[in-house]
Amino acid sequence: MSGAPGTLEAAQVRAMFDRIAGLYDGMNTVMTAGLHHRWRERAVELARVGPGSRVIDVATGTGDLAIALARAVAPNGEVVACDFSEQMLARGRAKAPGLRFEWADALSLPYAGDSFDAATVGFGVRNFSDLRRGIEEMVRVVRPGGRVVILEITRPTRQPLASFYRTWFDRVVPAVGRVAGDSAAYSYLPSSVARFPGPRELAGVMEAAGLRSISYVLTAGGIIAIHSGEVP
Predict the structure, then answer these.
(1) What is the residue extent of each domain of the chain?
(2) Which class in CATH covers the domain with range 10-230?
(3) Is 131 within 8 Å of 148 (Cβ atoms)?
(4) pTM, entire model
């Protein structure tokens, strides 16, 4: 781990996700009581895509957000689901063999500029080693007028949810991770959320990366933030 708590080098992040690929979907369901699918559907709505749209889902993991996007852009649309963890991509391909899963580094996307109608990232932007650069890459590949949507965990500030959140994410989730077989990865999760910019600060980074008309919604009592912005 690098110097700051909750941060890992890119190679360490890749190795961690390769290692936990088999646990990932089950842990997501446990950690969110199955609500993560609902949050992804809301992210799809904010992407404002429809039949025939072309969308890229960055840091797709096992592809749950990409699968939701594919339903929205059917029958003639296309979703490119990319990640730099081969094991996560393998899980995604097994779940959705009809989707286009490709290896890509979020900080250097191998796609032409202005080639997508929207770009999304669900629970992955927190792991970018360079946050602004990763968002700038998403902006670059989206056409003018298209959307960038970021779905991420955040830390609630109002009680009693703030206390529940600290107990759940700082204690229960790492404990479940230990039982599941990877305490390091699920100890990294709460610390990575703790050092990640809050909703207002993230909106500022998005603006600095070139987005306009930025807004965000908080859901799940303030535990989840979904940001969206338009490419000028």
Answers:
(1) 10-230
(2) alpha beta
(3) no
(4) 0.89
